[in-house]
Amino acid sequence: KVTDKEKIDQLQEELLHTQLKYQRILERLEKENKELRKLVLQKDDKGIHHRKLKKSLIDMYSEVLDVLSDYDASYNTQDHLPRVVVVGDQSAGKTSVLEMIAQARIFPRGSGEMMTRSPVKVTLSEGPHHVALFKDSSREFDLTKEEDLAALRHEIELRMRKNVKEGCTVSPETISLNVKGPGLQRMVLVDLPGVINTVTSGMAPDTKETIFSISKAYMQNPNAIILCIQDGSVDAERSIVTDLVSQMDPHGRRTIFVLTKVDLAEKNVASPSRIQQIIEGKLFPMKALGYFAVVTGKGNSSESIEAIREYEEEFFQNSKLLKTSMLKAHQVTTRNLSLAVSDCFWKMVRESVEQQADSFKATRFNLETEWKNNYPRLRELDRNELFEKAKNEILDEVISLSQVTPKHWEEILQQSLWERVSTHVIENIYLPAAQTMNSGTFNTTVDIKLKQWTDKQLPNKAVEVAWETLQEEFSRFMTEPKGKEHDDIFDKLKEAVKEESIKRHKWNDFAEDSLRVIQHNALEDRSISDKQQWDAAIYFMEEALQARLKDTENAIENMIGPDWKKRWLYWKNRTQEQFVHNETKNELEKMLKCNEEHPAYLASDEITTVRKNLESRGVEVDPSLIKDTWHQVYRRHFLKTALNHCNLCRRGFYYYQRHFVDSELECNDVVLFWRIQRMLAITANTLRQQLTNTEVRRLEKNVKEVLEDFAEDSEKKVKLLTGKRVQLAEDLKKVREIQEKLDAFIEALHQEK
């Protein structure tokens, strides 16, 4: 006579055997179906039916999510489109669960180390071959080959590290991966970095908060399905993720709870009923749509998916958890989990997608209205289109640089070079030579100083001037307004291109050596061929001396203060120092009147005489002050004398042709200025040829390279093309794209129904 307990045990045993029998039948049928579907897909792939394959629903939906991700990488768009968000504590087995669903070991792994450093969006879809590819790459990874799997894991790891900014451990930027294969359940999953309790060494201090922030951002979407992964081999009380999920979905209307490593839990937990309590959510206040238990291998990273699946099925066939009805058959294995998650995902998609499409239609209408009101006469150009427009403008302006006339180049080069070297010519060559007593000494001094100047400084100065002139002309073309057509939105970009191009441009090093020879030969020549050249040299000399005289007059005026007219008209007074300088100047001028041939330097007895004369009038003066004042007074006297001499030399060309024989007039200083003027003209001509033949082209090449580099740098474009107009055009483009893709997806969804 059997007891009631034995009857119950016998019935449970029979029920379990029946469940396992049908499970095996179902698996056999599914396997046959999978093979048949694979054959059909392969036939379509080879084009046997000669028809174009439409995009699958899941691929269309994934594209919508990709556009949303590009639209706002920080996930602030607040779209409410469904995704399966995979969250769990670090090392809880999130990645292993995902790999079982995707049927491939696709993620990088490490013992106890944080491997998921940024969200990974995995789009699962059916296809004839088991392959994976990134949304921004055409390379397919064959998931049946171990070398391709290793390459895929390495690529995911590289992309994660690239996304993570310096000083951070995790990143909110999403990596988008498509996985296709026969028998895969269609859905979009987002694997998030594992939640941590403590920040360890090597991590950024804000890592814990950043992971919480990323997880909350994805989970607060009211249509996101939360796949909460809990490690069954550790105490449930140590889990952080369950509290986080409870906050985001307190009623459990969109949460699926998964207990991993159940084999270890059954082995280590003294009371198996504790696993049942965890599965049913009785150990912590977390509600869920469904509860599942899975086994994701024996902890060996080299195990194949097939081996893990066989081990999982074998474990649950012999597990007390099923035999004692603590778990139901539909609650175990990753295959059942995958089916349940896919069903839940598509149910959520069908319920929410049309509402989301309407939301984007309203957003589009608002953006279009704002554009019409603010920019009625402008086309909607997004950042990339604006960059292309600016690129064409910049290249046109660089071409304009090559159309500058030779005359203009030579004029500005000659003027700039003279401005740079005039001080050296007057102070270091002309004035010292002019202090000499005869023409022979003058010419010798000039020749020596010109040779030294040509050997050491002049070629370098000339190249500097040419480079600066090229920069100035380039800047002028880049920055000068183009009238009504000028668009100031490009100003920052043009300035950045200009600076970067100039920074990259290097002047040809050989130019200096060849220029030195040309300049030396030009300065050696003293033969003025006609009266016109003679007059031009005199005019050049007069201009140079008058400019120096003006500077000297200003220096004296600052030294002695306002004259009587300014004091009377503007009520200004001299300071005590200016008064002393004025008295000293007057005394020195008396001395010059007495001896107009006075040398450039005062003798010590002359300084003493001046000081005593001033003291007799009650003016105390220092010898150094007398010397400073003398320098300016004598300089003015010398320049005025030189200008008078220059005027006399206007009629000196006849005497020059006779080498000043039988003539009291000597105009060697005019010959010097002619040599300088001719050297400037020849140098300007040489530099102009180098500019137009070589440097402008090289600069144009640099500009093209800079523009190409900027075109590939999205961050640079965002930084340089800014403003409300740009952002509005960007938003309009993205919202239209999202809406169009959503509409196409909804239409396909209705057709499938």
Written overview of the protein:
α2 packs antiparallel against α26 and α15 (458-479) crosses α24. The chain has two domains: 85-350, Rossmann fold (3-Layer(aba) Sandwich); 397-710, no CATH class. It has 26 helices and nine strands. The longest helix is centred in the C-terminal third of the chain and has 45 residues, at 668-712. The radius of gyration is 44 Å and the shape is elongated. 63% of the residues lie in helices and 6% in strands. The chain starts with a helix and ends with a helix. The protein has a nine-stranded mixed sheet, sandwiched between helices. β7, α6 (241-248) and β8 (255-260) form a beta-alpha-beta unit.
Main features:
753 residues; Rossmann fold; 9-stranded mixed β-sheet; mitochondrion inner membrane; Dynamin-like GTPase OPA1, mitochondrial; GTP-binding; nucleotide-binding; lipid binding
Strand content: 5-15%
Low-confidence stretches at least 5 residues in length (pLDDT < 50)?
47-53, 73-78
Structural class: mainly alpha
Gap between N and C termini: 57 Å
Biggest sheet strand line-up:
4-3-5-2-6-1-7-8-9
Estimate the mean pLDDT confidence: 83
Number-wise, the strands total 9
What Rg, in angstroms, do the CA atoms define?
44 Å
The global form is elongated
Overall number of domains? 2
As an assembly, this protein is single chain
Q: What does the largest sheet look like?
A: 9 strands, mixed
Q: What is the helix fraction of residues, given as a range?
A: 55-70%
